[in-house]
TrEMBL record:
This is tRNA/rRNA methyltransferase SpoU type domain-containing protein. Residues 103-189 form the tRNA/rRNA methyltransferase SpoU type domain. Gene3D superfamilies: 3.40.1280.10. InterPro entries: Alpha/beta_knot_MTases, SpoU_MeTrfase, tRNA_m1G_MTases_N.
């Protein structure tokens, strides 16, 4: 069993990988090694033993659960009479600079459920990939794979430090946009997006008479309070989502330096990171879809 592979548990999850044409290197059945009768082996292990052609693998193993847990040495906790598959890491095609215009940056997002949900949303909404920094989790975690419907196996991602992120953004001409809960003095404002020049204004009756104005529930503001320059949403975006988005208490000392970056938020306190990220990504797609600055 090689290092260029990953373990997945659960018959349903493994069958899903097979349907997506992932190569199964090894299939392990966690049943008693020396079963005296067929009744000692229970489903789903029994289902596979009776129908072995359902999952084609290079190698097949029958192991007791203790041996399997020693091999995995991970957060995966397969049950007795379960299936475990060793899957080759599939090749992941990273987008070129020309193909990259909307990217997600994850900061300290280490919960496997959150990673899995954000991977699914990123792909479903047409964003180009994920940059993980500051102790973000493992996209190959078995639970993250289950939640992402195996999308985390093939979706473009890159791990890097805060310093490397700056170079990544510069090399790919991406503008960082920080997702944060709006402060109290911003929660009551209402904004619109101007399609002709990508500027953002506070909504007024006069503005709403123009045909290139889009109303948005998102709230944008400058991170630097002394910065009075106009708000402008560029077409090449790297949206930063942090684990601390839910609490609204972002530790700037341990975080990426973003004092001068533009912020975006939604007026929905204590919303979880995957939900907030999905809402913001969907809305950014909507308001920039017909923008002339592409």
């Amino acid at each position: 069993m090689g290092t260029s592979s990953n373990f997945d548990t659960g018959g349903k999850n493994i069958l899903d990988l097979v349907k997506k044409n992932h190569h199964i290197k090894s299939l392990i059945v966690t049943a008693p090694n020396k079963s005296k009768t067929q009744y000692e082996i229970q489903p789903p292990a029994l289902d596979y033993l009776e129908n072995p052609n359902r999952i084609i693998a290079d190698n097949y193993y029958l192991m007791n659960i203790d041996m399997v847990l020693k091999i995995l040495r991970s957060g995966a906790k397969p049950e007795r009479h379960e299936l475990v598959a060793e899957v080759h890491f599939p090749p992941v095609i990273f987008p070129s600079k020309e193909q990259m215009n909307k990217f997600i940056v994850l900061e300290k997002v280490n919960d496997p459920h959150d990673l899995g949900m954000l991977t699914r949303s990123t792909k479903a909404l047409g964003w180009n990939g994920i940059y993980l920094t500051n102790k973000s989790g493992d996209v190959y975690n078995s639970f993250a794979q289950i939640v992402s419907k195996s999308q985390s196996l093939t979706w473009p991602y890159i791990y890097g430090s805060s310093e490397e992120l700056r170079k990544f953004l510069c090399d790919n001409e991406l503008k960082l946009l920080i997702a944060e809960p709006p402060k109290q003095d911003l929660q009551a404002i209402s904004q619109v997006f101007c399609k002709s020049d990508n500027r953002i204004f506070t909504r007024t009756e006069e503005l709403e008479q123009h045909d290139d104005i889009i109303k948005t529930p998102l709230i944008f503001w400058n991170g630097n309070k002394s910065d009075s320059s106009e708000l402008k949403l560029l077409s090449r975006i790297a949206l930063l989502l942090s684990r601390e988005l839910k609490s609204g208490k972002r530790n700037n000392e341990a975080s990426i330096s973003t004092e001068n970056e533009m912020r975006v938020g939604i007026n929905a306190p204590f919303i979880d990171v995957p939900s907030a990220g999905s809402i913001i990504m969907w809305e950014l797609n909507r308001i920039t879809a017909s923008s002339k600055n592409v």
